Protein backbone atom coordinates (compact mmCIF):
# COMPACT_ATOMS: atom_id res chain seq x y z
CA UNK A 1 0.00 0.00 0.00
CA UNK A 2 2.90 2.33 0.78
CA UNK A 3 4.38 1.59 -2.64
CA UNK A 4 1.05 2.45 -4.31
CA UNK A 5 0.92 5.75 -2.40
CA UNK A 6 4.47 6.60 -3.47
CA UNK A 7 3.61 5.77 -7.10
CA UNK A 8 0.46 7.92 -6.86
CA UNK A 9 2.42 10.84 -5.42
CA UNK A 10 5.06 10.50 -8.20
CA UNK A 11 2.35 10.35 -10.83
CA UNK A 12 0.66 13.46 -9.45
CA UNK A 13 4.01 15.24 -9.29
CA UNK A 14 4.84 14.41 -12.91
CA UNK A 15 1.36 15.53 -13.99
CA UNK A 16 1.76 18.81 -12.13
CA UNK A 17 5.16 19.41 -13.75
CA UNK A 18 3.69 18.74 -17.19
CA UNK A 19 0.82 21.14 -16.49
CA UNK A 20 3.22 23.88 -15.39
CA UNK A 21 5.39 23.26 -18.47
CA UNK A 22 2.38 23.47 -20.78
CA UNK A 23 1.25 26.70 -19.12
CA UNK A 24 4.70 28.18 -19.65
CA UNK A 25 4.74 27.07 -23.27
CA UNK A 26 1.34 28.59 -23.94
CA UNK A 27 2.43 31.77 -22.17
CA UNK A 28 5.52 32.02 -24.37
CA UNK A 29 3.56 31.26 -27.52
CA UNK A 30 1.05 33.92 -26.55
CA UNK A 31 3.90 36.41 -26.25
CA UNK A 32 5.28 35.51 -29.64
CA UNK A 33 2.04 36.34 -31.41
CA UNK A 34 2.32 39.65 -33.20
CA UNK A 35 -1.01 40.57 -34.71
CA UNK A 36 -2.02 37.40 -36.53
CA UNK A 37 1.51 36.29 -37.30
CA UNK A 38 3.98 34.11 -35.41
CA UNK A 39 7.55 35.26 -34.99
CA UNK A 40 10.24 32.91 -36.27
CA UNK A 41 12.68 31.93 -33.52
CA UNK A 42 15.74 29.70 -33.71
CA UNK A 43 17.05 28.02 -30.61
CA UNK A 44 19.27 25.28 -32.04
CA UNK A 45 22.55 27.17 -32.02
CA UNK A 46 21.94 29.25 -28.93
CA UNK A 47 22.06 32.50 -30.88
CA UNK A 48 18.63 33.69 -29.81
CA UNK A 49 17.32 33.83 -26.26
CA UNK A 50 14.23 35.02 -24.44
CA UNK A 51 14.12 38.68 -23.47
CA UNK A 52 14.24 39.35 -19.76
CA UNK A 53 10.69 40.71 -19.66
CA UNK A 54 7.79 39.28 -21.61
CA UNK A 55 5.29 42.10 -21.91
CA UNK A 56 2.68 42.89 -24.48
CA UNK A 57 2.98 46.43 -25.84
CA UNK A 58 0.23 48.73 -24.61
CA UNK A 59 -2.51 49.47 -27.12
CA UNK A 60 -1.57 53.15 -27.30
CA UNK A 61 2.05 52.26 -28.14
CA UNK A 62 0.96 49.67 -30.70
CA UNK A 63 -1.01 52.33 -32.56
CA UNK A 64 1.84 54.82 -32.69
CA UNK A 65 2.97 55.39 -36.26
CA UNK A 66 6.62 54.53 -36.94
CA UNK A 67 8.62 55.83 -39.91
CA UNK A 68 11.20 53.81 -41.86
CA UNK A 69 13.33 55.21 -44.69
CA UNK A 70 15.38 53.33 -47.29
CA UNK A 71 17.48 54.29 -50.29
CA UNK A 72 16.58 51.87 -53.09
CA UNK A 73 18.19 52.12 -56.51
CA UNK A 74 17.66 49.65 -59.34
CA UNK A 75 15.29 46.79 -60.15
CA UNK A 76 17.39 44.12 -58.45
CA UNK A 77 17.79 46.05 -55.21
CA UNK A 78 14.00 46.35 -54.88
CA UNK A 79 13.69 42.62 -55.50
CA UNK A 80 16.21 41.89 -52.74
CA UNK A 81 14.41 44.30 -50.41
CA UNK A 82 11.08 42.49 -50.84
CA UNK A 83 12.19 39.94 -48.22
CA UNK A 84 13.13 42.84 -45.94
CA UNK A 85 9.64 44.32 -46.34
CA UNK A 86 8.07 41.01 -45.30
CA UNK A 87 10.38 40.63 -42.31
CA UNK A 88 9.45 44.13 -41.10
CA UNK A 89 5.73 43.43 -41.50
CA UNK A 90 6.12 40.07 -39.78
CA UNK A 91 7.73 41.48 -36.66
CA UNK A 92 6.14 44.90 -36.30
CA UNK A 93 2.66 45.44 -34.95
CA UNK A 94 1.16 48.82 -35.63
CA UNK A 95 1.07 51.52 -38.32
CA UNK A 96 4.10 51.96 -40.56
CA UNK A 97 5.11 54.70 -42.95
CA UNK A 98 7.81 53.84 -45.50
CA UNK A 99 9.87 56.58 -47.13
CA UNK A 100 11.64 55.37 -50.28
CA UNK A 101 14.41 57.45 -51.85
CA UNK A 102 14.47 56.10 -55.40
CA UNK A 103 16.05 56.25 -58.81
CA UNK A 104 14.11 55.91 -62.07
CA UNK A 105 14.07 52.10 -62.00
CA UNK A 106 12.96 51.59 -58.41
CA UNK A 107 10.35 54.31 -58.89
CA UNK A 108 8.75 52.15 -61.61
CA UNK A 109 8.42 49.19 -59.25
CA UNK A 110 7.68 50.35 -55.70
CA UNK A 111 4.35 52.20 -56.19
CA UNK A 112 2.87 49.26 -58.09
CA UNK A 113 4.26 46.77 -55.56
CA UNK A 114 2.69 48.48 -52.56
CA UNK A 115 -0.52 49.58 -54.29
CA UNK A 116 -1.30 45.99 -55.27
CA UNK A 117 -0.22 44.64 -51.87
CA UNK A 118 -3.07 46.47 -50.08
CA UNK A 119 -1.48 46.44 -46.62
CA UNK A 120 -3.59 47.66 -43.69
CA UNK A 121 -2.03 50.44 -41.58
CA UNK A 122 0.85 50.89 -44.02
CA UNK A 123 1.55 54.05 -46.02
CA UNK A 124 4.45 54.86 -48.32
CA UNK A 125 6.02 57.92 -49.92
CA UNK A 126 8.33 58.06 -52.93
CA UNK A 127 11.14 60.63 -53.32
CA UNK A 128 13.18 61.21 -56.47
CA UNK A 129 16.85 61.13 -55.51
CA UNK A 130 17.80 63.04 -58.67
CA UNK A 131 16.47 66.20 -57.03
CA UNK A 132 18.91 65.82 -54.14
CA UNK A 133 22.00 64.11 -55.57
CA UNK A 134 23.85 67.37 -56.14
CA UNK A 135 23.94 67.92 -52.38
CA UNK A 136 26.21 64.91 -51.86
CA UNK A 137 27.75 63.90 -55.20
CA UNK A 138 30.60 66.39 -54.66
CA UNK A 139 31.98 64.12 -51.92
CA UNK A 140 34.79 61.80 -53.11
CA UNK A 141 33.66 58.29 -52.19
CA UNK A 142 35.42 54.95 -52.75
CA UNK A 143 32.56 52.80 -51.43
CA UNK A 144 30.76 50.46 -53.87
CA UNK A 145 27.39 52.01 -52.97
CA UNK A 146 28.47 55.23 -54.77
CA UNK A 147 26.11 58.18 -54.34
CA UNK A 148 23.35 55.93 -52.97
CA UNK A 149 25.49 55.44 -49.87
CA UNK A 150 25.49 59.17 -49.12
CA UNK A 151 21.78 59.94 -49.27
CA UNK A 152 21.20 59.26 -45.55
CA UNK A 153 23.14 62.42 -44.77
CA UNK A 154 20.40 64.56 -46.31
CA UNK A 155 17.36 62.71 -44.97
CA UNK A 156 16.27 65.78 -42.93
CA UNK A 157 16.21 67.76 -46.19
CA UNK A 158 14.22 65.11 -48.08
CA UNK A 159 11.53 64.08 -45.61
CA UNK A 160 8.57 66.33 -44.67
CA UNK A 161 9.03 68.50 -41.58
CA UNK A 162 6.28 66.65 -39.71
CA UNK A 163 8.48 63.51 -39.67
CA UNK A 164 10.42 63.96 -36.44
CA UNK A 165 12.08 60.55 -36.08
CA UNK A 166 12.84 57.93 -38.71
CA UNK A 167 14.67 54.60 -38.79
CA UNK A 168 17.14 54.39 -41.69
CA UNK A 169 17.71 50.86 -42.99
CA UNK A 170 20.07 49.58 -45.65
CA UNK A 171 18.45 47.34 -48.25
CA UNK A 172 20.74 44.44 -47.29
CA UNK A 173 19.39 43.88 -43.78
CA UNK A 174 16.79 41.40 -42.57
CA UNK A 175 14.62 41.74 -39.47
CA UNK A 176 14.54 38.66 -37.23
CA UNK A 177 12.56 39.76 -34.16
CA UNK A 178 10.47 42.60 -32.77
CA UNK A 179 12.57 45.71 -33.28
CA UNK A 180 10.06 48.31 -32.06
CA UNK A 181 12.06 49.14 -28.87
CA UNK A 182 14.62 50.86 -31.12
CA UNK A 183 12.14 53.71 -31.54
CA UNK A 184 12.52 54.49 -27.82
CA UNK A 185 16.26 55.17 -28.16
CA UNK A 186 15.87 58.93 -27.73
CA UNK A 187 13.85 58.65 -24.52
CA UNK A 188 15.56 60.67 -21.79
CA UNK A 189 18.00 62.42 -24.16
CA UNK A 190 18.27 66.13 -24.87
CA UNK A 191 18.42 68.15 -28.09
CA UNK A 192 22.13 67.45 -28.56
CA UNK A 193 21.43 63.77 -29.31
CA UNK A 194 20.73 63.43 -33.03
CA UNK A 195 21.19 59.77 -34.01
CA UNK A 196 21.45 56.23 -32.63
CA UNK A 197 23.71 53.50 -34.07
CA UNK A 198 25.17 50.15 -33.04
CA UNK A 199 28.90 49.53 -32.76
CA UNK A 200 30.82 48.35 -35.80
CA UNK A 201 31.45 44.57 -35.62
CA UNK A 202 34.65 44.76 -37.67
CA UNK A 203 38.07 46.18 -36.69
CA UNK A 204 38.09 48.47 -39.76
CA UNK A 205 38.58 51.74 -37.90
CA UNK A 206 41.22 50.30 -35.56
CA UNK A 207 43.43 49.05 -38.42
CA UNK A 208 44.69 52.45 -39.54
CA UNK A 209 48.38 52.47 -40.48
CA UNK A 210 50.70 54.75 -42.40
CA UNK A 211 49.76 52.93 -45.62
CA UNK A 212 46.12 52.15 -44.70
CA UNK A 213 44.61 55.45 -43.79
CA UNK A 214 41.15 55.47 -42.20
CA UNK A 215 38.73 58.21 -41.38
CA UNK A 216 38.76 58.61 -37.58
CA UNK A 217 36.18 57.02 -35.30
CA UNK A 218 35.55 56.44 -31.62
CA UNK A 219 36.95 53.01 -30.80
CA UNK A 220 35.63 50.47 -33.30
CA UNK A 221 33.27 53.06 -34.69
CA UNK A 222 29.58 52.68 -35.47
CA UNK A 223 27.80 51.03 -38.40
CA UNK A 224 25.31 53.04 -40.47
CA UNK A 225 23.29 50.10 -41.81
CA UNK A 226 20.73 50.76 -39.07
CA UNK A 227 20.41 54.37 -37.87
CA UNK A 228 17.64 56.04 -35.93
CA UNK A 229 17.76 59.77 -36.62
CA UNK A 230 15.90 62.59 -34.89
CA UNK A 231 15.19 64.77 -37.90
CA UNK A 232 13.43 67.48 -35.89
CA UNK A 233 16.52 68.00 -33.72
CA UNK A 234 18.78 67.82 -36.76
CA UNK A 235 16.93 70.66 -38.42
CA UNK A 236 17.10 72.77 -35.27
CA UNK A 237 20.83 72.05 -34.92
CA UNK A 238 21.54 73.07 -38.55
CA UNK A 239 22.62 69.52 -39.35
CA UNK A 240 23.31 70.23 -43.02
CA UNK A 241 25.92 72.87 -42.24
CA UNK A 242 27.38 70.72 -39.47
CA UNK A 243 28.10 67.64 -41.57
CA UNK A 244 29.25 69.64 -44.61
CA UNK A 245 31.86 71.59 -42.63
CA UNK A 246 33.12 68.44 -40.89
CA UNK A 247 33.28 66.50 -44.17
CA UNK A 248 35.16 69.23 -46.07
CA UNK A 249 37.68 69.46 -43.23
CA UNK A 250 38.29 65.70 -43.00
CA UNK A 251 38.58 65.24 -46.78
CA UNK A 252 41.61 67.54 -46.75
CA UNK A 253 43.23 65.37 -44.10
CA UNK A 254 42.09 61.82 -44.90
CA UNK A 255 41.04 61.94 -48.57
CA UNK A 256 37.99 60.24 -50.04
CA UNK A 257 35.41 58.39 -47.97
CA UNK A 258 36.01 54.66 -47.62
CA UNK A 259 32.67 53.63 -46.08
CA UNK A 260 30.35 56.32 -47.52
CA UNK A 261 28.02 58.03 -45.02
CA UNK A 262 29.30 55.83 -42.19
CA UNK A 263 32.60 57.73 -42.14
CA UNK A 264 30.75 61.04 -41.78
CA UNK A 265 28.51 59.79 -38.97
CA UNK A 266 31.60 58.51 -37.16
CA UNK A 267 33.66 61.70 -37.33
CA UNK A 268 30.65 63.61 -36.01
CA UNK A 269 30.21 61.11 -33.17
CA UNK A 270 33.92 61.55 -32.39
CA UNK A 271 33.89 65.34 -32.34
CA UNK A 272 30.43 65.59 -30.69
CA UNK A 273 30.19 62.66 -28.21
CA UNK A 274 26.71 63.66 -27.02
CA UNK A 275 25.37 63.44 -30.56
CA UNK A 276 25.01 59.63 -30.54
CA UNK A 277 23.09 57.02 -28.58
CA UNK A 278 24.70 53.58 -28.79
CA UNK A 279 22.22 50.89 -29.78
CA UNK A 280 22.65 47.33 -28.46
CA UNK A 281 24.57 45.22 -30.96
CA UNK A 282 21.60 42.93 -31.63
CA UNK A 283 19.99 45.72 -33.65
CA UNK A 284 22.74 45.50 -36.28
CA UNK A 285 24.62 42.19 -36.38
CA UNK A 286 26.97 42.70 -39.31
CA UNK A 287 28.06 39.83 -41.55
CA UNK A 288 30.73 41.43 -43.73
CA UNK A 289 34.11 39.98 -44.62
CA UNK A 290 35.90 41.49 -41.60
CA UNK A 291 32.92 41.41 -39.26
CA UNK A 292 33.02 39.49 -35.99
CA UNK A 293 29.36 38.75 -35.18
CA UNK A 294 30.44 36.39 -32.41
CA UNK A 295 31.21 39.51 -30.35
CA UNK A 296 27.47 40.12 -30.15
CA UNK A 297 26.26 36.54 -30.16
CA UNK A 298 28.46 35.41 -27.28
CA UNK A 299 26.18 37.38 -24.97
CA UNK A 300 23.33 35.06 -25.98
CA UNK A 301 21.24 38.00 -27.11
CA UNK A 302 18.11 37.94 -29.21
CA UNK A 303 19.29 39.07 -32.65
CA UNK A 304 16.93 41.73 -33.99
CA UNK A 305 18.48 42.70 -37.33
CA UNK A 306 21.13 40.90 -39.41
CA UNK A 307 23.14 42.94 -41.89
CA UNK A 308 24.77 41.43 -45.02
CA UNK A 309 27.24 44.32 -45.33
CA UNK A 310 29.67 43.06 -47.94
CA UNK A 311 29.70 43.39 -51.73
CA UNK A 312 29.08 39.62 -51.92
CA UNK A 313 25.98 39.89 -49.69
CA UNK A 314 24.54 36.39 -49.14
CA UNK A 315 27.07 34.70 -51.43
CA UNK A 316 29.74 34.72 -48.73
CA UNK A 317 30.44 31.26 -47.31
CA UNK A 318 31.01 32.10 -43.66
CA UNK A 319 28.88 30.07 -41.24
CA UNK A 320 27.14 33.23 -40.04
CA UNK A 321 26.20 34.37 -43.53
CA UNK A 322 24.93 30.90 -44.43
CA UNK A 323 22.88 30.79 -41.22
CA UNK A 324 21.19 34.14 -41.74
CA UNK A 325 20.84 33.66 -45.49
CA UNK A 326 18.62 30.69 -44.67
CA UNK A 327 16.44 32.98 -42.59
CA UNK A 328 16.36 35.48 -45.46
CA UNK A 329 15.14 32.66 -47.73
CA UNK A 330 12.27 31.94 -45.31
CA UNK A 331 10.98 35.50 -45.61
CA UNK A 332 11.62 35.49 -49.36
CA UNK A 333 9.34 32.45 -49.74
CA UNK A 334 6.68 33.68 -47.30
CA UNK A 335 3.22 34.24 -48.78
CA UNK A 336 2.90 38.01 -49.00
CA UNK A 337 -0.90 37.88 -49.10
CA UNK A 338 -0.97 36.96 -45.39
CA UNK A 339 0.07 40.51 -44.50
CA UNK A 340 -3.29 41.74 -45.71
CA UNK A 341 -4.48 40.35 -42.37
CA UNK A 342 -2.50 42.91 -40.37
CA UNK A 343 -4.58 44.48 -37.62
CA UNK A 344 -5.96 47.96 -37.98
CA UNK A 345 -5.59 50.16 -34.91
CA UNK A 346 -9.09 51.57 -35.35
CA UNK A 347 -10.99 48.88 -37.25
CA UNK A 348 -14.27 49.74 -38.91
CA UNK A 349 -16.77 47.15 -37.71
CA UNK A 350 -19.43 48.12 -40.23
CA UNK A 351 -19.97 45.84 -43.20
CA UNK A 352 -19.23 47.55 -46.49
CA UNK A 353 -21.48 47.35 -49.52
CA UNK A 354 -18.67 45.58 -51.33
CA UNK A 355 -18.49 42.95 -48.59
CA UNK A 356 -22.26 42.43 -48.71
CA UNK A 357 -22.04 41.95 -52.47
CA UNK A 358 -19.15 39.55 -52.01
CA UNK A 359 -21.07 37.47 -49.47
CA UNK A 360 -24.01 37.17 -51.88
CA UNK A 361 -21.72 36.26 -54.77
CA UNK A 362 -19.93 33.59 -52.75
CA UNK A 363 -23.29 31.98 -52.03
CA UNK A 364 -23.89 31.55 -55.75
CA UNK A 365 -22.48 28.89 -58.06
CA UNK A 366 -20.10 31.48 -59.51
CA UNK A 367 -18.85 32.72 -56.14
CA UNK A 368 -15.23 31.75 -56.77
CA UNK A 369 -15.28 33.46 -60.15
CA UNK A 370 -16.68 36.71 -58.71
CA UNK A 371 -14.05 36.59 -55.96
CA UNK A 372 -11.34 36.20 -58.60
CA UNK A 373 -12.70 39.17 -60.56
CA UNK A 374 -12.58 41.37 -57.44
CA UNK A 375 -9.11 40.20 -56.40
CA UNK A 376 -6.27 42.70 -56.36
CA UNK A 377 -3.29 40.60 -57.43
CA UNK A 378 0.07 41.43 -55.87
CA UNK A 379 2.39 42.47 -58.66
CA UNK A 380 6.16 42.91 -58.76
CA UNK A 381 7.54 44.39 -62.00
CA UNK A 382 11.06 43.93 -63.45
CA UNK A 383 12.24 41.64 -60.66
CA UNK A 384 15.19 40.32 -62.67
CA UNK A 385 16.72 43.61 -63.84
CA UNK A 386 16.27 44.89 -67.37
CA UNK A 387 17.82 47.24 -69.92
CA UNK A 388 15.09 48.79 -72.10
CA UNK A 389 15.50 49.26 -75.84
CA UNK A 390 16.18 52.80 -77.01
CA UNK A 391 15.01 52.05 -80.57
CA UNK A 392 11.61 53.64 -81.20
CA UNK A 393 10.74 51.11 -83.90
CA UNK A 394 11.48 48.07 -81.77
CA UNK A 395 9.00 45.25 -81.09
CA UNK A 396 8.56 43.56 -77.69
CA UNK A 397 7.29 40.00 -77.33
CA UNK A 398 4.56 40.17 -74.66
CA UNK A 399 3.59 36.91 -72.99
CA UNK A 400 2.51 35.27 -69.73
CA UNK A 401 3.13 31.87 -68.19
CA UNK A 402 3.14 29.73 -65.07
CA UNK A 403 6.27 28.18 -63.60
CA UNK A 404 5.69 24.80 -65.26
CA UNK A 405 5.97 26.43 -68.72
CA UNK A 406 9.56 27.59 -68.38
CA UNK A 407 10.84 24.80 -70.62
CA UNK A 408 8.72 26.17 -73.47
CA UNK A 409 9.68 29.73 -72.57
CA UNK A 410 13.31 28.77 -73.11
CA UNK A 411 12.42 27.62 -76.65
CA UNK A 412 10.67 30.95 -77.28
CA UNK A 413 13.83 32.80 -76.27
CA UNK A 414 15.78 30.67 -78.75
CA UNK A 415 13.69 32.01 -81.63
CA UNK A 416 13.10 35.59 -80.46
CA UNK A 417 16.15 37.79 -80.05
CA UNK A 418 14.24 41.03 -79.44
CA UNK A 419 12.92 42.57 -76.21
CA UNK A 420 10.63 40.42 -74.06
CA UNK A 421 8.08 41.39 -71.40
CA UNK A 422 6.90 38.23 -69.62
CA UNK A 423 4.64 37.87 -66.59
CA UNK A 424 4.90 34.78 -64.41
CA UNK A 425 1.93 33.68 -62.30
CA UNK A 426 3.64 32.21 -59.28
CA UNK A 427 3.83 31.91 -55.52
CA UNK A 428 6.44 33.77 -53.49
CA UNK A 429 8.34 30.51 -53.06
CA UNK A 430 8.29 29.82 -56.80
CA UNK A 431 9.76 33.24 -57.55
CA UNK A 432 13.15 32.10 -56.26
CA UNK A 433 12.97 29.14 -58.69
CA UNK A 434 12.38 31.58 -61.52
CA UNK A 435 15.42 33.59 -60.52
CA UNK A 436 17.48 30.39 -60.57
CA UNK A 437 16.17 29.62 -64.06
CA UNK A 438 17.26 33.05 -65.27
CA UNK A 439 20.74 32.37 -63.86
CA UNK A 440 21.21 28.93 -65.40
CA UNK A 441 19.38 29.39 -68.71
CA UNK A 442 22.06 29.71 -71.39
CA UNK A 443 19.85 32.05 -73.40
CA UNK A 444 18.44 34.21 -70.59
CA UNK A 445 21.72 34.54 -68.70
CA UNK A 446 23.49 36.52 -71.39
CA UNK A 447 20.59 38.82 -72.24
CA UNK A 448 19.51 42.10 -70.68
CA UNK A 449 16.42 42.75 -72.82
CA UNK A 450 14.15 40.28 -70.99
CA UNK A 451 11.84 41.96 -68.48
CA UNK A 452 10.31 39.51 -66.01
CA UNK A 453 7.35 40.38 -63.80
CA UNK A 454 5.66 38.40 -61.03
CA UNK A 455 1.93 38.28 -60.36
CA UNK A 456 1.45 36.26 -57.19
CA UNK A 457 -1.00 33.38 -57.06
CA UNK A 458 -4.22 33.48 -55.11
CA UNK A 459 -7.51 31.71 -55.71
CA UNK A 460 -8.15 28.91 -58.18
CA UNK A 461 -8.30 30.77 -61.52
CA UNK A 462 -5.55 31.76 -63.94
CA UNK A 463 -6.15 35.51 -64.56
CA UNK A 464 -4.93 35.51 -68.15
CA UNK A 465 -6.25 38.95 -69.13
CA UNK A 466 -4.72 40.63 -66.09
CA UNK A 467 -1.39 38.89 -66.72
CA UNK A 468 -1.36 39.94 -70.37
CA UNK A 469 -2.19 43.54 -69.47
CA UNK A 470 0.59 43.71 -66.88
CA UNK A 471 3.13 42.44 -69.42
CA UNK A 472 1.82 44.81 -72.10
CA UNK A 473 1.83 47.88 -69.86
CA UNK A 474 5.36 47.06 -68.71
CA UNK A 475 6.75 46.79 -72.26
CA UNK A 476 8.94 49.74 -73.23
CA UNK A 477 8.73 49.80 -77.04
CA UNK A 478 6.20 51.38 -79.39
CA UNK A 479 5.13 48.00 -80.76
CA UNK A 480 4.25 44.76 -79.00
CA UNK A 481 3.81 41.24 -80.35
CA UNK A 482 1.22 39.51 -78.13
CA UNK A 483 1.55 35.75 -77.96
CA UNK A 484 0.84 32.93 -75.53
CA UNK A 485 4.00 31.27 -74.32
CA UNK A 486 3.33 27.97 -76.12
CA UNK A 487 3.51 29.66 -79.54
CA UNK A 488 7.08 29.20 -80.76
CA UNK A 489 8.03 32.01 -83.19
CA UNK A 490 9.89 30.94 -86.30
CA UNK A 491 13.44 32.14 -86.79
CA UNK A 492 13.37 35.59 -88.30
CA UNK A 493 9.90 36.66 -87.09
CA UNK A 494 11.35 39.43 -84.94
CA UNK A 495 13.26 40.97 -87.86
CA UNK A 496 10.28 40.51 -90.20
CA UNK A 497 7.96 42.37 -87.82
CA UNK A 498 10.47 45.16 -87.44
CA UNK A 499 10.72 45.51 -91.21
CA UNK A 500 6.94 45.72 -91.55
CA UNK A 501 6.42 48.36 -88.85
CA UNK A 502 9.25 50.44 -90.33
CA UNK A 503 7.78 50.34 -93.85
CA UNK A 504 4.04 50.60 -93.11
CA UNK A 505 2.05 53.35 -91.41
CA UNK A 506 0.88 51.44 -88.34
CA UNK A 507 -1.58 54.05 -87.08
CA UNK A 508 -4.71 52.20 -85.93
CA UNK A 509 -3.41 48.98 -87.47
CA UNK A 510 -2.68 45.55 -86.03
CA UNK A 511 -0.78 42.72 -87.68
CA UNK A 512 -2.28 39.23 -87.41
CA UNK A 513 0.46 36.60 -87.39
CA UNK A 514 -0.69 33.18 -88.71
CA UNK A 515 -0.28 30.37 -86.20
CA UNK A 516 -0.02 26.64 -86.86
CA UNK A 517 -0.14 23.59 -84.64
CA UNK A 518 1.47 20.18 -84.90
CA UNK A 519 -1.18 17.50 -85.37
CA UNK A 520 0.54 14.94 -83.14
CA UNK A 521 1.92 15.73 -79.70
CA UNK A 522 4.44 12.91 -80.14
CA UNK A 523 6.18 14.76 -82.95
CA UNK A 524 7.84 18.03 -81.98
CA UNK A 525 9.72 18.89 -85.19
CA UNK A 526 9.10 22.50 -86.23
CA UNK A 527 9.18 23.45 -89.94
CA UNK A 528 11.86 26.06 -90.56
CA UNK A 529 10.81 27.39 -93.99
CA UNK A 530 7.57 28.25 -95.79
CA UNK A 531 8.12 25.41 -98.24
CA UNK A 532 8.69 22.88 -95.46
CA UNK A 533 5.58 24.12 -93.65
CA UNK A 534 3.36 23.80 -96.76
CA UNK A 535 4.70 20.31 -97.42
CA UNK A 536 3.86 19.12 -93.90
CA UNK A 537 0.51 20.91 -94.11
CA UNK A 538 -0.36 18.94 -97.27
CA UNK A 539 0.71 15.73 -95.53
CA UNK A 540 -1.54 16.44 -92.54
CA UNK A 541 1.24 16.74 -89.98
CA UNK A 542 0.67 20.49 -89.50
CA UNK A 543 -2.57 22.50 -89.62
CA UNK A 544 -3.67 26.10 -88.95
CA UNK A 545 -4.20 26.65 -85.25
CA UNK A 546 -7.62 25.59 -83.90
CA UNK A 547 -9.45 25.84 -87.24
CA UNK A 548 -11.00 22.45 -86.48
CA UNK A 549 -12.42 23.71 -83.16
CA UNK A 550 -13.20 27.41 -83.71
CA UNK A 551 -13.12 27.96 -87.48
CA UNK A 552 -15.14 31.19 -87.31
CA UNK A 553 -12.52 32.77 -85.05
CA UNK A 554 -9.36 31.48 -86.65
CA UNK A 555 -10.23 31.51 -90.37
CA UNK A 556 -9.95 35.29 -90.32
CA UNK A 557 -6.25 34.79 -91.01
CA UNK A 558 -7.12 33.25 -94.40
CA UNK A 559 -4.16 30.85 -94.27
CA UNK A 560 -5.34 29.13 -97.47
CA UNK A 561 -4.77 32.36 -99.42
CA UNK A 562 -1.28 32.65 -97.93
CA UNK A 563 -0.63 29.02 -98.87
CA UNK A 564 -1.66 29.55 -102.52
UniProtKB/TrEMBL annotation:
It holds the Pfam family Glyco_transf_8. Coiled coil: none annotated. One of its GO terms (biological process) is protein O-linked glycosylation via mannose. One of its GO terms (molecular function) is xylosyltransferase activity. It is a single-pass type II membrane protein. Keywords: Glycoprotein, Golgi apparatus, Membrane, Signal-anchor, Transmembrane, Transmembrane helix. The keyword Manganese does not apply. It comes from the Eukaryota. Signal peptide: none annotated. GO terms for cellular component: Golgi membrane. SUPFAM superfamilies: Nucleotide-diphospho-sugar transferases (SSF53448). It is found in: Golgi apparatus membrane. The chain crosses the membrane at residues 7-28. The keyword NADP does not apply. InterPro entries: Glyco_trans_8, Nucleotide-diphossugar_trans, Xyl/GlcA_transferase. This is Glycosyltransferase.
Amino acid sequence: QMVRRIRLICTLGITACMAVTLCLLFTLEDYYLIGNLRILTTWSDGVQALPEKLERPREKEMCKEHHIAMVLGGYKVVNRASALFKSILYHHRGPLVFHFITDEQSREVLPNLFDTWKLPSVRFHIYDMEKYKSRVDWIPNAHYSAVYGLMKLIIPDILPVDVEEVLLLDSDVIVLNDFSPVFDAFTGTNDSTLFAMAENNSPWYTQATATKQRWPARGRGFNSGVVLVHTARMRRANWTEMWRVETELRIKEFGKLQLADQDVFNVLALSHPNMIVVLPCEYNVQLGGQSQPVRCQKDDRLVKIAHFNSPQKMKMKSKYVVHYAQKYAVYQSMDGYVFRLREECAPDNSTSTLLNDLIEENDSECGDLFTSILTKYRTHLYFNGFTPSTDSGDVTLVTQLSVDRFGIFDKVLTSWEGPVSAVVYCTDAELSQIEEFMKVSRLARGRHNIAMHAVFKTGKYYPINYLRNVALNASKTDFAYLSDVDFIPFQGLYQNLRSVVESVNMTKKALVVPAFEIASSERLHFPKTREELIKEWDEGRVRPFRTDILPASHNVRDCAKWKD
